[in-house]
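Honest question from a wet-lab person: if I give you the sequences of every part of a complex, can you actually get the arrangement of the whole thing, not just the pieces? Trying it with mine:
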Amino acid sequence: MAEAYDVAVIGGGPGGYVAAIRAAQLGLKTVVIEREHLGGICLNWGCIPTKALLRTAEVLRLAQHGAEFGIKAEGLSFDLGKIVARSRAVANKLASGVAYLLKKHKVTVIDGTARLKAKGVVAVAGKDGKPLADVEAKHIIIATGARARVLPGLEPDGKLVWTYKEAMVPPSLPKSLLVVGSGAIGIEFASFYNALGVKVTVVEIVDKILPFEDDEISALARKSFEKQGMTIHTGAKVDMLEKGKDSVKATLALKDGKTQIAEFDRVIVAAGIVGNVENIRLEELGIKTDRTHIVVDEFSRTSAAGVYAIGDVAGPPWLAHKASHEGIICVEKIAGRNPHPLNVRNIPGCTYSHPQVASIGITEAMAKKDGREIKVGRFPYQGNGKAIALGEPEGLVKTIFDAKTGELLGAHMVGAEVTELIQGFGVAKTLETTEAELMETVFPHPTLSETMLESVFDAYGRVIHI
Amino acid sequence: MPTPILMPALSPTMEQGKLAKWLKKEGDKVASGDAIAEIETDKATMEVEAVDEGTIGKIMVAEGTEGVAVNTPIALLLGEGEDAAALKSYGAEPPQPAPAKAAQDAEPVKVEKANGAPAAAPQANGHNGHDGGRVFASPLARRIAKDAGLDLAAVKGTGPHGRIVKHDVEEAKAFGAAKPAAAAAPAQTGGALVPQRLAAAIPDDQIIAMYEKGTYELRPLDNMRKTIAMRLTQATQTIPHFRLFVECEIDTLLEARQRINMRSPKDGQPGAFKVSVNDFIVKALGLALQRVPDANATFTERGILLHKASDVGVAVAVEGGLFTPVIRGVEKKSLADISNEVKDLAERARKRRLAPHEYQGGTTAVSNLGMFGVDNFDAVINPPHATILAVGRGEKRAVVKGNQIVVATTMGCTLSCDHRVVDGALGARLLQAFKGYIEEPVTMLA
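Yes, you can. This is the full assembly:
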């Protein structure tokens, strides 16, 4: 006997479970089908556990710089097993929290793998592979997420060549590490391992690290990483990996055309992701895909009526908060509400390295390419009292305004806690404030957030503290 | 925070009114669009509709209270998850009696020439000049509107709670604000929209001076009225119209209609429909355009756009004006689909909830006044359309068939054509094809 629901969500990650809770709030009978673990990659193997690891790196770094703050801490060491265990505990705590939230909202959870069977019908296989009862639902939301992209010649083996998953639970600390790809995931792992004393080399095919960030911010971050001991090759790629017994010999094709052969204990491949579009039987219902992503409209509707796709599987930006928001919009549309489509330019992106990087909107280069007349403001952390007091004088807040309308086109930040600050510009952008309202806003003193105000002032030639 | 429900202005000039009757009581749940109270003015009694959903937390103005000023909170609406405790945080104010204000002088409405936007009254400090209510707009929207000389009161907000956001202002800039009237897209004739005067050749002051003060009421132009005035003045001044008239016999059609509707699933069931004569007309006109594709066209100075699909507008009278939502690809749609789509669009047009893409474009439109007992009339083309079909009522009339006078139900149809793109013979062929489908509806299946 098939169970009938209003909404069936395939995948319990940050897109799927949020969509399910919103659906339940709107009075829809909802089921989530999850094949592995509620919370998805984000909670279990992504955003959250890496933040736990990076917090360790931060604590260690502060302790190492204790003398600077008048703290004597000698003979510092760390226990890798405990570092990883804490990260796992944090992930598990949150994942069980998701189970509780779904239960609280009376969302049914089925442990199993779902496939589209027919219009409005999902076939489910249990964890043992045996078929469970079909699920009938008027609306089916595909939120199956994505996985690491595999590059030919760089196939992960889980031992010497890692993806994010192995990199998160290292059994022992490698002495040297090659990170392929300098997006947020690559840079965060590079930053973590570098902090623990691993000799880290980052190879990026584009000519800058953090390729989606503003050039200036990217360059500043690079300078800081290099100062901390990382080796970074941009405009470069890994030609070949030769696996040895407990190390890998990598042939790097560098920017200047030279080839460099170097040996690394471990390799992390973080060269983008691909959507999990396989084995859902999308073709059966004629659902269009574009490479590895499901094609959707602004309300996450696929080419088949009654089927929706949200989050990573529906295309970039690959961010948990984008997935959650899409889930909410998708469900509100299903429930006959009148939600607003997501404005991609209002989605902030964060990288939790040291220093942190955060941004929203378009970069200076993009604005210029659009042919816009712009005003650009910059304010360095050196001019901020709180940053100096924290001992974090490295950082920059860059703001880009449309010269004609005063629209905040983009904000780009590097420095301590910028991932917590960026939401201020997010609110500003969503509310469509111009420079005038930002300048009228009173920012508390002394805080890092004052750098945001000063950056706005600077864009209009009114900066105070430079 | 509970949301206050404010005393609405039922007309642009209304300053106060009587709260005649509460249709909901405290504790009742309301959905957006539910009637919650009746308001009476000297002119009319109207229902107040809930804008948001929630629960009526507190009624602040008792039934029967007279002289309640516009914008006075009359009740508090509790949102999702809010309980009555939230009411305490809201400083409930007693209703303010409307200030006794001298009757407004019948001052001529100032008409500004606006470039690219319909002429609008000058903006008074961001206040909506029509009902005195605050205009909610984002700072960016305000600035763009100011730079473009746009009146925000003329812009429909699509942001949260109807807030005007950048997108709305930019759209208003591109298409001309308000644009609720029949013709949404700017006329294709002169590139940039030429500033247009709304009124006739005689200056307003002179016109107004011809009537004794106090013998009339001045109703300010709302945006829909302004747009209608501008577009249709433009249409009659720039489009060389000519008209073709035919009488169609519709007995077969009426019978077909009855047989089709008998087969509809029960009302409320999925797939239910009730096809009207007008739906047949829309379908027939769409098919006729496919048969005579040269008439499925739009005139521009850069060339004639020959359209592939038959996109047919349907004029819908709404309070204070009209909309012409467009049914796309009529040739491919079934009568039932057309019928349900027209119904949906008309309903939303009446609530003024159509999205611009739903009433822009198309090459022709159907205007039907048969239900008012009009036998025959002709209509003004809505730019950028090439034609418009005016339809009168179906009536039993005496007709001559083979030297016999017999009774037949006939319906007068007048096609107005834009001579720049549809010449006499072309228009005649279109009308002939249309008449063929109407008189032998079964041929629509071919």
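Two things worth pointing out. Chain A touches chain B through twelve residues (CB under 8 Å). Residues 355-459 of chain A form a domain with the Enolase-like; domain 1 fold (CATH 3.30.390.30).
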